[in-house]
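Lecture notes, unit on protein representations.

Consider one protein chain, 85 amino acids long.
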Amino acid sequence: MNSFIRDSVIQRFEFCWELAWKVLKLRLEQLGIAASNPRDVFKEALAAGLIHDGNRWSEAQRMRNLSSPIKGCWRTILPCLMTLL
């Protein structure tokens, strides 16, 4: 896989992750539930029934945390991302 495709996959995952937690945060606010960070948002969304597989979301959060500081760790991140699909 060339570096352009690799970086594009990681960037798309990061974008989708940010969009997912921020949309859930807005929905929780509409329901009167306060949560300020992704971990709390997904915990509250699970409790509110907005999402169903908390373990999968936790794993996705772990992958997001891995992808953020070092783009060069794609050999670890990419196979893990593929298991979430």
